Amino acid sequence: MPQDRPAVVVGVDIGTTSTKAVAYDTDGRQLASHSVGYPLDDPQPGYAEQEPQLILDAVLKSISMVVAELVEPVAGLSFSSAMHSLIGLDAAGNPLTPSITWADSRATRQAERLRAVPSGLALHRRTGTPIHPMSPLPKLLWFAEQEPKLFESVAHWVGIKDWVLLRLCDALVIDHSIASATGLMDIHTLEWDSEALTIAGITEEQLPQLVATTAVLPSLTPQVAAVTGLPERTPVVVGAGDGPLANLGLGAVHPGMVACSIGTSGAMRVMVERPGVDPLGGVFCYALTEHRWTVGGAINNGGIVLKWAGAALAPDLGEHAEEELVALAARAPVGSGGLIMLPYLHSERAPHWSALPRGAYVGLTHGHRREHLIRAALEGVCQQLALVLSSVRSAGNEVREIRAGGGFARSGLWRQMLADVLGLPVSFPAAHEGSSFGAALLGMQALGLIPSIDVAADLVRIEETVRPDPAAAATYAALLPLFAELYDALVPAFTSMRRLAPSLPAEPEPSAGPPM
User: Which InterPro entries would you find in this protein's record (predicted)?
Assistant: First the structure.
């Protein structure tokens, strides 16, 4: 499509705690952005849910604010969203449940039961989604067992992006990327998996229509057009999940290019051309397009660990003392004087995919001070990511390049620590809004404004490449096997702690979990 000037697409990223709309032109320039936050509710321990209407309102407001700021016309909208959410709708499309987010762990027992049967791993390998309480499949089992009357009354089960698109465009669809994170779709056939549906106790008719991530919905409803300031005929690209789109937003679009992100939580993903997981089920496999998939793993505990360390170990520094905490950590030696922290403050996902573990310090002596404890916490996050990277390799993937982003990337110490622990150079792109930029790029391809999402590799400018320090890398390489062994060694203790928990005095009330 010839253009007198670069066309503009608005990437809309529906996150766990906010929605951000960002306008980009086809040269990759950011023209306008706006974000609107909303709460993540935890009415009971283990619950992490949201009010769908608040999220829809945030989507509409963020889009309208960006449109009002732009001089250029909008060629289209394209969507990203957090994965694994679940909402029950009535026949008219009205929510009967809150949006149950990925951070919700109420379905832990159902997930453990599924994982324990011989077909559990086969289900993971067929659907690409680990058997974990984050996944909609165990959540559906929970509703069937704990809320049977509600379960029977639900006409459709959807994710948050599916519901938002229903309200924007009056179309009930789910893209292959979001569907690949439900535990209900066969990633090899791109169809709903009959065994998974039988386990969940639902039918295909209760799920949205499966469509490609590049599918275009041709118009907005008149009401949405009026609210956003866009023409009704504005095309809407269905888009994908935030994880695969973060790879795209970092320019990690070719095989061998790994995208690492550490925000409040963290993830490690590599783009592949054919779907598949490792033999032990240590990674997920989620779609970006029919010929691009991301293999990797997410961890629950990223920057949230530094926040905890500040509150627990250095409250005298105040609430927003990240720089001071990192400076404290820098005073401790590489390896924290033999102190190891398992950073499982919010249980964990990859590569073990278990809600069982808790955090632990191992190797504590009278010589350790709070700088050692803080540094060990940061090192633990990086070591957990190293385990995920190992699982990515075990799935048969070459790792040639690592690109990293997220809030942690502002810290020079953490940048160097990540390169040292992974034992590889790590490149840090200049600031882009990750998933929203990925959504915009996917939308540009779908609308014929760019030839391919491959242009992402050229549009993303590398700001710095950090190379591992040989001595530090050797220390971390020696410690990593011990870090990995500690999980298995402590599983019996974690199990006993969970069994004893109901008889112990009330523990501090847990948060709902970190946003992804």
Answer: ATPase_NBD, Carb_kinase_FGGY, Carb_kinase_FGGY_CS, FGGY_C, FGGY_Carb_Kinase, FGGY_N
501 has a pLDDT exceeding 90: no
The span from the CA of 148 to the CA of 478, in Å, is 51
Locate 102 and state its tokens: 């990925």
Judged on CB neighbours under 10 Å (0-12, 13-18, 19+), 201 is: middle
Of 164, 42, 143, 32, nearest in space to 97 by CA: 143
**pLDDT tens for residues 83-92?**
999 999 999 9
> Does residue 316 carry a pLDDT above 80?
yes
Contact 322, 411 (CB under 8 A): yes
CA dist., res. 253 & res. 231, Å (int): 32
Calculate ∠ Cα 446-289-248, nearest 5°. 80
Name the DSSP letter for residue 338: G
pLDDT at 277: 87
Quick one: CA torsion of 379, 382, 384, 386, rounded to 10 degrees?
-130
Q: Is the pLDDT of residue 181 over 90?
A: yes
**87 DSSP β-pair partners:** 158
DSSP string covering 231-277, please?
Answer: -TT--EEEEEEHHHHHHHHTT--STTEEEEEESSSEEEEEEESS---
Q: What percent of the chain has pLDDT over 90?
A: 83
- Cβ atoms of residues 130 and 159 within 8 Å: no
d(CA 205, CA 105): 27
Segment 394-410, tens digit of pLDDT = 888 999 999 998 877 78
